Amino acid sequence: MIFGKIDYINLLPFHIFLKQSNLNNAFKKAVEHKKGVPSSINSAFEKKKVSAAFISSIKSNKNYIKTLPLGIVAKKNVKSVIVKKGSYVCDPASATSNILSKVLNIKGEVIIGDKALKEYIKNPNDYIDLAKAWYDKYHLPFVFAVLCTNKHHKIYKKIANAFKNKNIKIPGYILQSYAKQRGISEKEIREYLKLITYKIREKEKIALKLFIKKSKALGIKNKMHKNV
Questions:
Q1: Count of domains in the chain?
Q2: pLDDT, tens only, 160-211
Q3: pTM over 0.70
Q4: Which of 104, 148, 180, 208 lies in disulfide reach of 55, CB 3.0 to 4.6 Å?
Q5: Quick one: how far is CA 82 from the chain centroid?
């Protein structure tokens, strides 16, 4: 069992949960060796170098992929998936967000992750929050990633269920460490995590189906090995 880790603040509660769980140490250590940005984790999952990961939502709609009702979901705004107005420039770390900007017809430079969060906090008026733009248009949350498996589905299902039913508290020393590493204050990290939810329920399923439908309508090809 090898889990692919997206090393962004938005999944910090899940990774704390894994560290605090009774999973074996070999599994926990392997997580730290298979981490990266969404596009690289997508590729590792496709090549079966990892058995499970939060896969970009645009990549999760495949018949051969098993999914679990967990994801990275923006309730309304998100701050960490943004566009700087101008000519279209994709973020090579992204898959879903690049397509979302096209679905919403928002032109500019797509920026995702912790670097986007840091920039948005400093200069919110310079950027468009893509999750907010989606919510304003469709009145639905936006699902950026879905927990997917290609092996050991039953085990990961148990892990997902345990995470859903647990209230995760971030230890102070970890919060301090992330704040120092990412250049984002502890207060801003706490506020940011309030914008994120992980459960995929009916509204989230509707939103995900709508996004896939809209992307197909634009004729966007969705191949796992390409960073679209």
A1: 1
A2: 999 988 889 999 999 999 999 999 999 999 999 999 999 999 999 999 999 9
A3: yes
A4: 148
A5: 14
The CATH number given to whatever domain includes residue 48 is 3.40.190.10
Q: Taking each helix axis from N to C terminus, what angle separates 113-122 and 186-193, rounded to the nearest 10 degrees? A: 110
Residue 186 lies in a domain: yes
Residue 145 tokens read as: 């990633």
In-domain check, residue 212? no
Please determine, for residue 223, whether its predicted confidence score (pLDDT) is greater than 60: no
Supply the pLDDT for residue 2.
85
Average pLDDT of the residues in 105-113:
95
Using the predicted structure, report yes or no on whether residue 224 has a pLDDT greater than 60. Answer: no
Task: Determine how β-strand 66-74 pairs with β-strand 196-199.
Answer: antiparallel
**Alpha-carbon distances, residue 2 vs 51, 122, 149, 152, 192 (angstroms):** 5, 36, 10, 10, 28
CB atoms within 10 A of CB 46: 18
Using alpha carbons, list the distances in angstroms from residue 111 to 62, 79, 85, 116, 178: 26, 10, 11, 5, 20
For 189, how many CA atoms within 13 A lie in the half-sphere containing its CB? 25
Reduce the DSSP state of residue 130 to 3 states and report it. Answer: helix
Q: Flag whether pLDDT at 222 surpasses 50.
A: no
| Longest CA span, the chain | 48
Q: In what order do the strands lie in the sheet with 81-85?
A: 108-112, 81-85, 127-129
